[in-house]
Structures are given as structure tokens and as C-alpha cells.
Amino acid sequence: MDEAELLTRARAGDAAAFDALADRYRGELRAHCYRMLGSLQDAEDGLQESLLAAWRGLPGFQGRSSLRTWLYRVSTNACLRLASKRPPRVLTPDHGPPRSDVHDLGQPVTGPVFLEPWPDDVAADEPGPEASFARRENVELAFVAALQHLPATQRAVLILREVLEFSAAEVASFLDLTPTAVNSALQRARKAVQERVPGPSQQTELSALGADGRRELIDAFVAAWERADVDALVALLADDVRFTMPPLPAWFDGRDDVARFFAERVFETPWRLVPVQVNGQPGFACYQRGPDGRFRTGAINVLSLRDGRITRITAFLDPALYPLFGLPEELPS
Q: Taking the CA atoms of the chain, what radius of gyration do you get in angstroms?
């Protein structure tokens, strides 16, 4: 059934037809909500609120724009309403200074504070190699984190104009602004994001490594981690590497402190790693062996690179993330 017929039925109150319409855009709308809110779980809330608002507002849809454009308008405003009720998500260095005592990690920070990772296998945006490259750039951790530092309206403008390529006039209609105000907000947002993410994107770094280089780096990281080989692991790190582990407030800055943390805390027990793609970047689902010999959820680690070296390891410790990534909570002994 084509979109026009589904739309006619949905406007007449056919919930199944509306669900079929929504399924065509669900993935990209979820990605939009993630960029707006910085959390996969918040993105699900945003998506559900968006679709509910769209269902209720469908009788008023006059077809002056495409259905996709109208859904983005509804979704953007749903996310803005949610964003007004919640603090912006941040990375650990935005929450407090680094620590040098590897035995003082602090207590987990409660509440919706930290940015959450995005699983690459969640369908989003448009298919094709060029679109896939751009999509992954636009969910990279540093970019999404920078977005959260923008005022919510600037965040929406940047995403709608730069990521989704809506016109200034369209964005103005979404947000009840003038095109001049949209362009002004876009300039300020661009400047702020460029200051926070000044270097090449992770997709550019990964492309420079090539397929063989990426495979070698991933294999070396897994082998060193599973062997608890601190020297081999440290050899992969940049001098200014940072290791963070939300929701714990502690983080370590520089290769020496990170190496000491590995040696004295991380490898007290054995690990197994499962490579995954997270936010368009190399990642690993890490499983730690317990006293009973079983390997259970430990952290989802995300690597950021510069010139072939690891500059950031973000270890998301929340076990609730594993099912969202389609990962088991336990590996065979």
C-alpha cells in the first residue's frame, strides 16, 4: 500500500495504517530524538511522545509539506518539551575534574546526568555509503555531547539545518521563528560546536586507518585487555588519553594515570570482550568474570582515535544498556 493510501486511512482513524506509516520513519526519528536528547532511553521517550502527538494531530495535517517534514516538526517540538524538563546530558569531564587516586572512584551519580551510547545497528536516516558515513559522523560521541551544551533551540536548528538539511524557511516554520533568527541561531551553534569538536571526525580518523588498520587496532585492544597486558594496552594509547566511566564521577587524564588505573583496578579479574560499533566508533561489550566463573556485564567501552592512537575510552557501566544493544547479560564460562 502506498503512502498516500495509508495516509488517507490513517486520517480516517485507522491505527494500523498509521503504524505502517510511522514504521517508515521510525528509525530516523529515533536518531533525531537521540541527537536532541543525548540518551537512547530518552530518545525512546521522545519517539513515543512524537508518534502520539502525530496520531492526535493527523486530522489537522493539510499536506502542505511532505509527511516526513511534518513528522520532523512534530518530533522536534516533542523533544524540546522533554528537554525543558530534563538537564542536558554530559560526558564525565564536564561533571568534575580528573582524579589521580585510582582507589577513589566515588559513588555512582544518580539521575539523567550522563550522555548514553547509541548502537550502530539501530536503523537511522538514509541508506547508502555516503549517507552512512554522514550518519555515523552525526552520532559520534563528541558531536552529540557538544550538541547538549547548546541551548535547546540552537541544538534543534543545527540538527535540522546541518544534519537533516531542511531549509531555513522550513526550520523557521518548525520552531515559530523567522528565517533570519534561524540563520543567526545556526551561526552561534556552529561556532560553539566547532570549539568543542575542533579536530577531524572519527569517521575521517577511521578512514585514514583503513580496513586493515582498524582490524589490527581492534584485535590488539581485545588481545591486550583479555590478557591483562597493561604494557601492550598502553602502547595503543595517546599521551593525552582520557578514561571515563559514567555513572562514576571519577575519570583519569593522561597515559600514566590511565595505565595505573588499568594495572591496579581494571585487571583484578579476567575479562572477555565482544567488539561492537557504538556511535559510529569502535566499541566493546566487556564481560567480567565473577567468583562463580561466569562472565557478566561490566561496561560498554567506546574508543575515540587520533592519528591511529586511542585518545578516549568511555566505559559506560550501566548494565541496562546491554539489552538495548541486543547483547546478552552473560557469556558462557
A: 21
Residue 282 · residue 304 · CB < 8 Å: no
- CB distance 261 to 103 below 8 Å: no
Q: State the helix-helix crossing angle for 168-175 and 67-83, rounded to 10 degrees.
A: 50
Is residue 279 within 8 Å of residue 89, measured between CB atoms? no
Q: Taking 90 as the threshold, does the pLDDT of residue 276 lie above it?
A: yes
Give the position of cell 585518545: 311
pLDDT tens by residue, 217-268: 999 999 999 999 999 999 999 999 999 999 999 999 999 999 999 999 999 9
Domains parsed from the chain with CATH numbers:
1-86 (1.10.1740.10), 202-331 (3.10.450.50)
DSSP letters along 195-243, please?
HHS-S--HHHHHHHHHHHHHHHHHHHHHHHHHHT-HHHHHTTEEEEEEE
What the block records as the C-alpha cell of 97 is 575534574
Grid coordinates of 172: 523557521
Compute CA distances 12 → 1, 9, 138, whole Å.
16, 5, 37
CA distance 310 to 261: 16
